[in-house]
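Sorry, any thoughts here?
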Amino acid sequence: MKRLGGLSALALIISSASGCGWIYGEDGYFRDRGGDYLEARQTAPMQLPANVEAKPLDPLLPVPQHIATTTAVDEYEVPRPQPLSVRADASEFSLQKSGDSRWVVAQRVPAEVWPMARQFFEDNGFQIVDERPQTGEFSSAWQRIDQLSATMASRLSSSLDGGAADNEARVRVRIEPGVQRNTSEIFVVSAVRPAGSSADVAFTNRSGNAGVDAALLDEMLVSLARSAEQGGSVSLLAARDFDAPSRVSLSEDGNGNPVLNLGADFDRAWSAVGRSLELADVRIDDLNRSLGVYYVNLAEGARKKDEEPGFLGKVFGGEPDKETIEERAERYQVRLTPVGDSVQVTVEKDLNTIAPADVTRRVLTLIQDNLG
């Protein structure tokens, strides 16, 4: 202890005698290095051997062309960034293009877009003959173009080579969940045949009538924007059945763990499981779509939109406090794994631990019972 005290006293004497320049001064160990970049100089590019192929890389942090002069001695005030320009009148519907492909993106869920799109085609004289809400598709019958609404007949006739208004046409509309949450993508494909022909011209994956499809999308875009301003409706059938898997079976894997098999692609399965958990009154604390995981708490009910207890609710035991929720929490992970053309749903305690079989079966049964 005496030795430690002596060293401390010696350090105090040295620092008092020589000052703190050797620590914080210009040549000190802890000097200010904030302006060192102003003295940086560009060096010659690295030379590689002749037999090595170089791949250029863009710099992650490129040096700006105009920087403060190195001779400046006064303080430099960094200008405030310019505000982002945001269109106040941005529509909920926009037309997207990629090569020859065109489609409409809607800032609404498919259940809201479905009745609006269907109404547009009915209002323009198309006869809907086939509807499949579970796959988000509907199609029309063969009809002469001049039997459609005057505006639509004029647009489609001018889009066809030769402008034959007596040609027959039919359309197929597909509404899919968008890449972003709570958005939809609308695709339209047409088929055209000469008047009086009985040939069953099939729909193609890639548009064979680019002009007709473009005219349909342009007209629909205007109609959807107008309908949104007037207030639209929601299709309860589409809301429940749009993402419903075609096949659902509860089985066991090779280790005897319960597994729910959904005959759907990942997007539709992800949407269906999330909706089923809400209908089953299961609390979703968090989710990670890229990992395919819903983080649930079986001890709490599902969150309601704008759920906020009032003053009396808080006083008389409405929403429990965080401590109570943590004490009784039963947290599990509902994981979706694509397997071929289907998706398997499992329940885990954490990334490395499978949930107990009774808990897994209870959760998967709740999901199965609430699927459309």
Notes: The two ends are 77 Å apart (CA to CA). Residues 83-89, 305-316 have pLDDT under 50 and may be disordered. Residues 244-369 form a domain with the TATA-Binding Protein fold (CATH 3.30.310.170).
